[in-house]
Amino acid sequence: MSYFRDLGVESSAVRFALVTHWDDDHIRGIADVVEAAPSCAVAVSAALHKREILAFVIENSGLGGVGSGVSELRDVLRIVHERGTPLLWAKVNTMLHPLPPGLAPEIVALSPSDDALGRSLEALIEDATGLEGSVPRRFRAPEGPNGASVAVSVKKGGIVMLLGADLETSANPDAGWDAVLKYAAPATAASMVKVPHHASAGADHDGIWETLAEPQPVAIITPWSRGRKFLPTEADLVRLSGVSDKVYLTAVPSLARIKKDPAVNKLIQRLHGEKVEELRGWGHVRARRRPDEAEWRVELDGDAVHV
């Protein structure tokens, strides 16, 4: 909300919020945004579209297995309930905004697929209860929050953005990016892509770059780190650089707890030209394009970099 205030945008101007899934690094803070924006419609994954599942989320949001993201989701549900406004249930080929249709940018959900919904829901319950599911899994499919992740296409005129959330690839052709390409590929390719799942190899699919995106799209990556694990890796950035020369990283993965890892030191030194011993801070990439403009105007702030 402070970002909106810096731009001179009133909270009443925020009309739509998408809870892509309930992982902490994607949902924390969304309740504050929804509460501050009284005209804001809220969409969540259709994996939760049952009364008993919503009750489960509320009752079990304090359990350690599901993380604080579910507590954040509980707060969003409370705010929406108190306002008496309906939630929008996001699944493949669902129009999320505007409702009813009009001149505003169109936001269409590309995922989750019907097949992925049940698997993700089962994993949520397993995480919260510690109990293994009784139904054997047929595929090594993306499950848990990422399996229910809502990727969307945003279209205004002839300009299309693809926001990949944390959707991953799968051995199951009816889940993940295979399902998007099979059931929900937009008619117009995207000129800007929010790269899915921090540019991990497990979320990369040739069809994203060959079918869903234009050649040389603006590609924006957000980092992730936990302990000695981090994304994107050097190999991830090399792979994405082969897709486009307009790849941007909002911030460099934290070195606070993994500063001795030579691969990370190499990555930081290549991007910044110097060694960095701790987190540089934060940054953001702002991409803007008017309907009459042929290219995106990209601005970097903080520690954001052009890869």
Describe the protein in words:
The structure is a single chain. This protein is α/β, with parallel strands linked by helices. It has helices at residues 2-7, 24-27, 30-36, 51-60, 68-83, 114-129, 144-147, 176-184, 206-212, 234-241, 262-272, and strands at residues 16-19, 41-45, 88-90, 94-97, 106-109, 152-156, 159-163, 190-194, 213-221, 224-226, 229-231, 247-249, 283-288, 297-302, 305-306. It has an eight-stranded mixed beta sheet. Strands 1-2-3 form a three-stranded parallel beta sheet, with helices on one face. A hairpin with an 8-residue loop joins β4 and β5.
What is the element layout, followed by pairings?
Layout lengths: L1 H6 L8 E4 L4 H4 L2 H7 L4 E5 L5 H10 L7 H16 L4 E3 L3 E4 L8 E4 L4 H16 L14 H4 L4 E5 L2 E5 L12 H9 L5 E5 L11 H7 E9 L2 E3 L2 E3 L2 H8 L5 E3 L12 H11 L10 E6 L8 E6 L2 E2 L1
Parallel strand pairs: 1-2, 2-3, 7-8, 8-9, 9-12
Antiparallel strand pairs: 4-5, 5-6, 6-7, 10-11, 12-15, 13-14
Helix pairs in contact: 3-5, 4-5
